[in-house]
Amino acid sequence: MTSLLFAFLIAMAPAPKDAPAPNWLEFRGPDGTGHYTGPKLPSTWSPTTNVVWKTEIAGKGWSSPILVNGLLIQTTAVAKGSDHDLRVIAIDAESGKVKWDKSAFVRTSTEAGKMHAKNSYASPTPVSDGKIVIAHFGHMGTACYDLAGKELWKTDKYSYDPQHGNGNSPILVDDNVIFSCDGNDQQYIVALNKTTGKEVWKTQRNTPARLKFSFATAQLIEHKGKKLIISPASDIVAAYDPKTGKEIWRVKYPVPGWSLIARPVYGNGLLFICTGYVTQHLMAIDPEGSGDITKTNVKWVARKFVPNTPTPLIVGEELYTIADQGTMSCLDAKTGKVHWAERLKGKAFSASPILSDGKIYITSEDGIGSVIAADKTKLDVIQTNDMKEKTFASIVPANGAIYLRTETTLFKFADKK
Asked: How many other CB atoms are found less than 10 A from the CB of residue 225?
């Protein structure tokens, strides 16, 4: 009994203060859901409120940071004359000090290509398995590092004409890193071995779209015990076998859609897809079957206040969306019924929302941060915060703190005790 009691007390003891913060290893965190379950986050922040530290970041990049064993890792693009130095930066999460800063690629303006005014040359969020970090710069290359900053491999084999720059973030599935290449000239999804960077499989899209460029991050789901990679492209969304890359099924959009950005969302047995420009639709799909399942598996379609950039958020049986223009909606995930739709503060939105303790956190492009109760009966804004600076990156929560990247600076916010 004494041994059992001792073991119980050890298990219940609080973690030491120097224990590493929980990891946030990819775009939108664990499983790509945007859900955070750690200690309570601050509801109030500003350039002078609840600031633990702030670190200026050279160059320009809209990628969100990830948190890996106490390191915040993000990408940026630093102008060097007419060239672009694509860099990977690791920052200590406790102190805000830069631990290492590596140049992955240097690209000329011709190689980098034209970029949309709202994009950057470092927009995809890195991904990690807790031991290595993979930074992706779209058509300009992909590089892998260990946590000490040692380069393990890099490749620029997967080049294409991107139209508006890079966008989709890589994901890790078992031993592979997976990303899509949807340009004007070619469209495919590819898996590389995460340890070597060697190609494992490559699958052509065969999309009928007239405008073929898109930027959506893929999503791994498990539906009825079967794993599928869900990857939207222009005019279609398709499911792929993670091991072989074989296309399992596809769904066509109600109207042509391109330049997709929002990541797929899975919940309540349904898959939710935003179909891109110009007439956005939100589709609920049963991810079962094979072949063309458009006529049999689309359960409902919404046409109002559909986002193109911010990824929707599942909370229980509700689906929350934030349109680029700022209208937030709450829908019944199973039926598509709109509970409410109201305008948020902020000129426009590109970041994706996260969920913590029954509250939704979101930032606008002009730096207005909102904390909103997850309430299907009404829009209940608990707090608004103004960073007074462009903010395209999504919030990263960890260990009771918020990490937020603005145009020039990475901030850490936490409630002062």
From this structure: 5
Torsion on CA atoms 290, 294, 299, 305, rounded to nearest 10: 130
Q: Are strands 226-232 and 409-413 parallel, antiparallel or unpaired?
A: unpaired
Closest CA to 305 of 284, 291, 324, 277: 324
Q: Decide if 42 contacts 382 (C-beta within 8 A).
A: no
Residue 25 is encoded by which pair of tokens?
A: 């290893």
pLDDT score, position 10: 34
Element of type H or E holding 4: helix 2-12
DSSP E strand stretches across 93-234: 98-108, 127-128, 132-136, 142-146, 151-155, 171-173, 176-182, 187-193, 199-204, 219-223, 226-232
pTM (2 d.p.): 0.93
The DSSP result for 15-71, as a single string, is PPTTSPPPPB-STTSGGGS-EE-SSPPPS--BTTBSEEEEEE--SB--PPPEEETTE
What pLDDT score was predicted for residue 232? 97
Residues contacting 79, CB < 8 A, separation 6+: 59, 60, 85
| φ, ψ dihedrals at 399, nearest 5° | 55, 40
What distance in Å separates the CA atoms of residue 239 and residue 231, rounded to the nearest whole number?
A: 6
What number of H helices and E strands is found in the chain?
3, 34
Cα–Cα distance measured from residue 326 to residue 348, given in angstroms and rounded to the nearest whole number: 6
Q: What is the pLDDT of residue 9?
A: 37
Predicted pLDDT at 139: 94
d(CA 243, CA 76) in angstroms, rounded, equals 32
Q: Which residues pair with 397 in a beta bridge?
A: 402
Q: How many residues in the chain?
A: 417
Could you tell me where the beta strands, DSSP code E, fall in 194-337? 199-204, 219-223, 226-232, 236-240, 247-252, 265-267, 270-274, 282-285, 291-292, 298-302, 313-315, 318-322, 327-332
Domain ranges for the chain, please list them.
21-413
The string of pLDDT tens digits covering residues 137-188 is 999 999 999 999 999 999 999 999 988 878 899 999 999 999 999 999 999 9
The reported pLDDT for the residue numbered 17 is 39
Residues of the chain with pLDDT under 50: 1-21
Quickly name the fold that domain 21-413 has: Methylamine Dehydrogenase; Chain H (2.130.10)
- How far, in Å, CA of 312 to CA of 6, rounded? 45
Task: Measure Cα distances from 186 to 71, 139, 245 in Å.
Answer: 36, 11, 17
E strand or H helix at 359:
strand 359-363
